[in-house]
Fold this sequence. Notes:
Elements: E1 9-13, H1 21-31, E2 38-41, E3 53-57, H2 68-81, E4 87-91, H3 94-105, H4 133-141, H5 147-151, H6 155-162, H7 164-174, E5 196-205, H8 208-229, E6 231-243, E7 248-258, H9 261-273, E8 285-298, H10 308-322, H11 326-345, E9 351-352, E10 366-367
Antiparallel strand pairs: 1-3, 1-4, 2-3, 5-8, 6-7, 6-8, 9-10
Helix pairs in contact: 6-7, 8-9, 9-11
Amino acid sequence: MPPAVVPWFVAVALPGWSRPRSTLGRMAEWCMRFTPRVHVEEADPAIASGAPLVLLDASGCLRVNGGAGRLARRVGRGLARRGIAHAIGSAPSGGEAVVRATAAALGRTDGGGAGCSAPDLDSLPVEALRLAEPACEALREVNIRRIGELRAISRAALADRFGPALLERLDRVFMTGASGALGWPFRAVPAPAPVVGEFAFASPCAQREAVDLACRQAIALLCESLDARQRGVRSLAVRIERARLAPVVGTLHFGAPTRDPAHLWSLLAPRLERVHLGHHELGEGIERIVLLAQRIGRCAGGTPLLAGELGRAVADAGAEAAGNDRRAESERAVGELVDQLRARLGEARVVLVRERPDAVAPSNRLGA
């Protein structure tokens, strides 16, 4: 019998959000590393607490994330590293998580999402229900400022004075509707399409020059998709399907995100030379080449410089004038060097050692 799915939600409120709408979409895609179900609500000026909201449905995903507390801490650390102001709420229901995150964004209380003690919902302000500003103003006129004070009033009186929208919001938070489980409105963001470069032959091909040209075209298609997303590949799955022969599969790991076709071809070409293409007379040959980007990351622009303390000093001195991140580009160049060494010496013989931010003396970044 399969184990029971534990319902759990993590809500992230974004106070003071001033970034473009596309950034919110990329943030939702980033949250999909924790759970495939992510809901996004954009900023709404009509709502008293109109900050954007990201809701993660982590039901069934707690074990792989190390538990509810560790999941909330991982989300918070990731957003903090990116300089995004946020407030996190964590609870067994989506409505409760949203209310806690919204109250924390308003500065009234802590959301209890990162291991802190979660306050009682009745003690939270009515603005945490994400009601329209006129509804919140009407509640303040009759001195109703807490959710507990609102719940103490009969449902009939609330409906007569404030309309059915307020009752519906309470039902979605406290799950007291007719069905017993209304829940917060949830519309899952569709998962992004995989980044793939593919070439299919009309018939099995055993000619080396044609296979090399097909692989180059697959790399070009992959890099075009990566360039459209302004990302680079970190882990590339390669699958070569052969007629009447077993497919050849493998994975390439890169020291830094890249979308350079020349660099990718320099790593794939030696491996492709070792692949047995088959005999055309026997109906054997390559049918399809598929390149799938399993992991992608942000590519930095700039001019490669020296690594270590010298590169850091020059990057810090010329960062404002150049308008780019030269240290990150230097790390990309070092990553490409590591990729070449791994291709020649083996994956297990070359390790990229990164410096700690608090390191005093420069250390060797390459270990063999």
